[in-house]
Automatic annotation (TrEMBL):
Protein name (Swiss-Prot/TrEMBL): DUF3352 domain-containing protein
Top-rank taxon, per record: Bacteria
Length: 904
């Protein structure tokens, strides 16, 4: 009897223990877990979604999905999903299983080399458990997959390998949730996090925030700003990372709502300020957000802009500047700037050249700041025993302050990289640049209205951004394309090129922070520039055709209307009459010049009315006419009845409309005149001993006027305004040339570089002291291959063209081949290059024999799928409002205007 009692007691204890264990496991499985508490604190981003079918459907309707779906990472994910879906049980496919779930996706940086994702998926019903169990069994049976189960710190981890694609993922179950990742390291980290207990949510600051309850919101996006530098460090070169780390310390975290539109991605919400000592936020401590008033000074070619809206600009200073004799004056000057300051990088055209940059700071009082600036300039001048250098450019004065890293000393180390500073005061702003040429270009852009404040596309973009902010970053991915290439790590450059379609398509990006009580309202916008319906997509649309009584013998010379600056053209017929045609196709003025125009028409502001006038040369004369075709006073004037002029160059040395006209003859003699026809001493003639290869070019460097003259025999001259040769010149390139060079002006003659290409394809760079800096030979397939440098109309970028037995190849500024085309004849072709900035490029190639012009877009595809009948070079301009192009061409006795639109 006692033995039976003991037996029953033991059995009861065993059954009770099993029941308790089963109940505990059931209770644990029923216990709900906040998925946010499982996310490791190293996550850079966490995305929460709850309606995947609607999200996917909306994405597929947008341009974003079209671009994103071709990326390798998206294609691999879709392939994996398709294979898993193929082994899913019954008709409850994966997509149905995942729909309507609150799923988290966290993004992590592993080992400073890789980005990995973790997915957190709840399993909410018996049916879903059954689905997953059957799916797991089917995976085991399918030869495409290999499954292994292992134990790690009390958790069963399952590793699944796709034997066909070669990739794998790891997952485990925790309280009716599946945690899955391609990285077993991250899965194991989450297991360790669970075992440590006391799970805290990475988004605890936003526990009561849920944007998913709002209409048209597709995700909650958590941002961990403290982890962003590690993410950026995977792609950017190390020398940029100190600035990235500093800027990332403006806030510590954020919760943003994700919205999608046809051509936009919005992220809006709030960020918590970073409170760590030495952070950017504790340094800046901004209060009231400020508007972007500086937009009237920002060129449309701006690639990257950092804008700071802060009452006291001096708060940006980080105490890293040296303490020397200039410090008290610099401290006083720094305190005189307020409201806003910006650091802008301009579009560049190759990855081997540093982009032009400018600092634009608002003055509290132009008089006070100007006085303090002049006090610093005089102090530096006295210490260096040098006279203060100033230069007049139009109505503005440019001044050199030869003090290293002046902007960094004034505004903090974010503004470093200025070997010296050229300074320009415009209205209530002071602009700093390390290169005087950048400031001249800025003035030209402002005068031409090519600034953000007057750009239709840019104004439309700014309307959708925050109108006031404390810290804003603006990026135009097309303008910044070569900058991104330049500063990416070498191993990531290929990925950038592969994803170029997506990156360049959504070209307008903004990230903004505006103070709102104890947080920052945060707005992130990825926007595709609006496309209007003007023009025919991928084809030509005729706007007008104008017949003339006589054959046309000139290309359509592009001009601007002297009154309203609209785009017009001038053509010359075989009776030697010039005809003006307006933008609407009406006939304007005519002028019989009784000789053929050489070179082309140039527009300058002549006379007391300061209106645009037209200047050109014929065989023996220099002409200038007004907007009605009437000769101006003193024009035309004869150079010589015995000469045959080849080219006309017009220089305005002081930008004060005191023009000089420089012409050359067939023997290489140069003649210069003023606007009254008076000969300039030293130029009557200035003998070059050989024919010129191209029109002479002028550049001002350090207050010196330099006229660059290239001869066909390869000799290079650099002359001053009196025709005298600069030291180091002439020198010989030892190879013939037949095209002009491109000048990149620097702070002095030594740092000003000229690029030329020889007829045989040798690219030579030399400075204006006559020192050759580099030589590089382009591929030359045969001895008949000849090369020319072809600049765009603005002279800011160029291509190099190789012609060889009917084939034309083009190379970019990094000497990489853009395209090669074959044509009907082997005769030399007329090659044109139009670069309107922002990726708006057109290449034109004209064959004189067949009288055909072929136009190609930036992808080197033939526009409209056909050639144009044309016996002269064409004229093209870009219409920003309609995002289309107008082309003027001549054929026999007809002038025609067409419009076209480049395919996306």
């Amino acid at each position: 009897m006692p033995k039976r009692i003991v037996f029953f007691f033991i059995a009861f204890v065993a059954l009770a223990s099993l029941a308790y264990y089963g109940f505990s496991r059931w209770q644990d499985s029923q216990q709900k877990v906040d998925l946010w508490t499982l996310v490791p604190e190293t996550a850079a981003f966490v995305v929460e979604t709850n309606n995947h079918s609607d999200l996917k459907k909306h994405l597929e309707e947008t341009d974003l999905w079209e671009s994103f779906s071709v990326l390798p990472v998206a294609q691999r994910f879709q392939e994996n999903m398709a294979m898993l879906d193929s082994v899913a049980p019954g008709n409850q496919r994966l997509e149905r299983f995942l729909d309507k779930k609150h799923i988290l996706t966290s993004v992590h940086v592993l080992g400073k080399t890789d980005v990995e994702f973790v997915y957190y998926i709840p399993v909410v019903s018996v049916g879903e458990h059954r689905f997953l169990r059957t799916l797991s069994e089917n995976i085991i049976k399918d030869p495409l997959f290999k499954e292994e189960i292992r134990e790690y710190q009390g958790m069963l981890l399952t590793d699944v390998t796709n034997t066909q694609l070669g990739n794998s993922f790891t997952y485990f179950s925790f309280h009716n949730n599946i945690i899955l990742s391609a990285s077993p390291v991250l899965v194991e980290e989450i297991v360790r996090r669970i075992n440590r207990g006391k799970l805290n949510s990475i988004a605890a600051d936003y526990k009561k925030v849920n944007y998913l309850s709002q209409e048209d919101v597709y995700a909650n996006v958590f941002v961990n700003y403290r982890a962003l530098p590690d993410l950026f460090g995977l792609f950017l070169q190390e020398d940029l990372m100190p600035q990235v780390r500093y800027l990332s310390s403006f806030c510590r975290n954020a919760m943003l709502e994700l919205k999608l539109d046809q051509n936009k991605v919005f992220l809006n919400g709030f960020s918590n300020p970073e409170t760590l000592e030495g952070s950017f936020q504790t340094q800046l401590r901004p209060s009231k957000p400020r508007p972007l008033d500086i937009k009237q000074l920002l060129p449309t070619r701006t690639a990257i802009l950092m804008h700071f809206g802060v009452r006291e600009v001096a708060r940006l200073r980080d105490g890293k500047a040296p303490n020397d004799a200039y410090s008290p004056t610099i401290d006083s000057l720094a305190r005189s700037y307020s409201q806003e300051i910006a650091l802008a990088y301009m579009e560049s055209y190759n990855m081997n050249t540093s982009p032009d940059k400018m600092v634009i700071a608002r003055m509290e009082s132009s008089g006070k700041t100007g006085t303090r600036f002049q006090a610093l300039a005089e102090q530096v001048s006295k210490a260096q025993n040098e006279k203060i250098y100033t230069e007049k450019y139009g109505n503005y004065t440019l001044q050199l302050l030869d003090l290293e890293e002046l902007p960094a000393r004034l505004f903090g180390s974010l503004f470093a990289g200025f070997e010296q500073s050229y300074v320009l005061q415009i209205d209530n702003y002071m602009v700093f640049s390390p290169d005087i040429a950048s400031l001249r270009a800025l003035i030209d852009d402002i005068n031409a209205g090519e600034v953000w404040g007057r750009s239709v596309a840019q104004k439309a973009f700014l309307e959708e951004t925050l109108h006031e902010g404390n810290f804003s970053l603006y990026l135009n991915t097309v303008n910044a394309w070569y900058i991104l290439n330049r500063y990416l790590q070498e191993e990531n450059r290929e990925d950038l090129l592969q994803n170029s379609s997506l990156i360049r398509r959504f070209n307008q990006v903004s990230v903004q922070f505006a103070r709102a009580e104890n947080q920052y309202y945060t707005s992130v916008l990825f926007r595709r520039q609006e496309r209007h319906a003007d023009g025919v997509q991928g084809g030509y649309e005729e706007e007008f055709t104008i017949p003339f009584a006589s054959r046309l013998i000139s290309p359509p010379y592009p001009i601007q209307n002297a009154i309203d600056r609209s785009r017009e053209v001038v053509v010359q017929d075989s009776m030697l009459v010039l005809h003006n045609i307006t933008s609407t196709g009406t006939r304007g003025w005519t002028d019989s010049v009784q000789a053929q125009v050489i070179g082309g028409l140039q527009q300058v502001e002549l006379g007391s009315e300061k209106r645009l006038r037209y200047v050109f040369a014929t065989g023996t004369r220099i002409h200038a006419i007004d907007h009605l075709g009437r000769d101006l006073e003193h024009f035309p004037f004869n150079v010589s009845d015995t000469l045959r002029l080849q080219r006309l160059a017009v220089f305005d040395f002081e930008k004060n409309r005191d023009y000089r006209f420089l012409v050359d003859d067939a023997l290489g003699n140069l003649y210069m005149f003023d606007t009254r026809g008076n000969a300039i001493p030293g130029w009557q003639p200035r003998r070059m001993d050989y024919r010129l290869a191209a029109t002479p070019q002028h550049v001002r460097v350090g207050g010196r006027d330099v006229i660059l003259v290239l001869l066909e025999n390869g000799y290079v001259y650099a002359l001053n305004a009196k025709g005298e040769t600069y030291p180091g010149f002439p020198f010989s390139l030892r190879v013939p040339i037949t095209s002009e060079g491109v000048i990149r002006a620097g702070a002095d003659l030594r740092r000003s570089v000229v690029t030329v290409v020889s007829r045989y394809g040798e690219v030579v760079e030399f400075n204006l002291q006559g020192q050759v800096k580099a030589r590089e030979q382009l591929p030359r397939p045969s001895k008949s291959a000849m090369f020319d440098l072809v600049p765009d109309a603005g002279g800011r970028s160029y291509i190099i063209v190789r012609q060889d037995q009917g084939k034309v190849a083009a190379f970019d500024q990094d000497l990489k081949e853009l395209f090669e085309k074959r044509y009907v004849t082997s005769a030399p072709k007329i090659v044109q290059y139009f670069n309107f900035g922002g990726g708006n490029q057109v290449y034109g190639i004209t064959e004189n024999g067949p009288q055909k012009t072929y136009l190609y877009g930036p992808d080197a595809r033939l526009i409209g799928g056909r050639s144009l009948e044309s016996n002269q070079p064409v004229s093209i301009h870009y219409n920003e409002v309609g995002n289309n192009y107008s082309v003027f061409k001549v054929f026999r006795n007809e002038l025609q205007k067409l419009s076209f639109k480049l395919p996306d």
